[in-house]
C-alpha cells in the first residue's frame, strides 16, 4: 500500500520482482501515515490483517505463533507477540516486554497499555472490529496506533504470546515521522491525551482519575530530551516541558541539580543549556 509516493517505477519493480504474490495498491492522493493504514483496512478482503512497515520485519514462525495463540485464547479482536527492537543495521537494541507474564502467553487489558503501546509490527487484528471502531484516527499526530489498540482491547480484549514474532527498526534521522513528533515537543502532551482516552474506555466500576503528578513521579521527564530538543522547542512548548520537569520526581542527584536550576532560571536556562549541549555534541 503506497501512499502516493514519488517513485513511479515502484509498481513495475514489485510486479517484476514478485509477480502475483504481491498486490500493489497506490493511493490516488496522499493520506498520511494513519490514513494509509486506514487504506489497508479498506482494501483488506480477509477477516484478519497485519500491517508491516517497509523497514520492519517478521520472525520465522510469526503466522504459526499467532494461530497457536488464537487457539489458546479465542474470541479476541487483537493478537500480538514479543517484538525485538533493532537499530538501523538490524542489531538488537532492546526487547519489548509488555507485562510480566510467567506463562507462554497472557491476556492484555486496558490497564496493561495505560503507560504506552506495544511496538507496531507483530500484531494481527480483526478487520471488522477495526472498521466498527472507526479505524485509525487519521488526524493523529503521534498516538493513532495506541488509540486503535485501546479501542480494540476495550471492545473484546487482546492476547499476547511470549514468542518473538517481529523486529521493530529504530532510526536516528530527525526527518522520520515519529522523531519529528518528538522533536516538535508534541509527543508527551499527546501521550497524556491518549492516557485520558484509555481511562474513558474503562468500565464505570473501574474508573480512575488522571493524575499527571503521580505519573511524573513514576516516569520523570527525561533531562536528555530537554538537552537535545530544548533549543528548538517553541516558547509555549518549552514552558510546558519545564513545568513537567518541575513536577517530576528526581531519580538521582544530577537530575535534582538540573531541576533546581530550571526552577530558578526557567525556560531560558533550559534553552541555553540545550544550545551548549548540542554544540558540545556536534564537536
Biggest sheet architecture = 7 strands, mixed
- Which blocks of ≥5 consecutive residues have pLDDT under 50? none
**Cα end-to-end separation:** 41 Å
Can you tell me the CATH architecture of the largest domain?
Alpha-Beta Complex
Radius of gyration: 21 Å
Query: According to CATH, what is the topology of the largest domain?
Result: Spore Coat Polysaccharide Biosynthesis Protein SpsA, Chain A
Q: What is the helix fraction of residues, given as a range? A: 40-55%
Q: Which overall shape is indicated by the principal axes computed on the Cα atoms?
A: globular
Number of domains: 2
- Helices, by number, come to 11
**Mean pLDDT score:** 90
Q: Indicate the structural class.
A: alpha+beta
The CATH superfamily of the largest domain is identified as Spore Coat Polysaccharide Biosynthesis Protein SpsA, Chain A
- How many extended strands? 7
> What is the name of the CATH class of the largest domain?
Alpha Beta
Q: Please give the oligomerization state of what you see.
A: single chain
* H-E order: HHEEHEEEEHHEHHHHHH
Explain the overall architecture.
The protein has helices spanning 10-18, 32-43, 62-72, 127-132, 144-156, 177-184, 187-201, 212-218, 223-229, 235-247, 253-282; strands at 48-49, 57-58, 78-86, 92-95, 105-108, 123-126, 158-169. It is built from 11 helices and 7 strands. The chain starts with 9 loop residues before the first helix and ends with a helix. It is α+β, with helices and mostly antiparallel strands and 283 residues long. The protein is globular, with a radius of gyration of 21 Å. It folds into 2 domains: 47-209, Spore Coat Polysaccharide Biosynthesis Protein SpsA, Chain A (Alpha-Beta Complex), CATH 3.90.550.10; 219-283, no CATH class. Strands 1, 2, 3, 4, 5, 6 and 7 form a 7-stranded mixed sheet that branches.
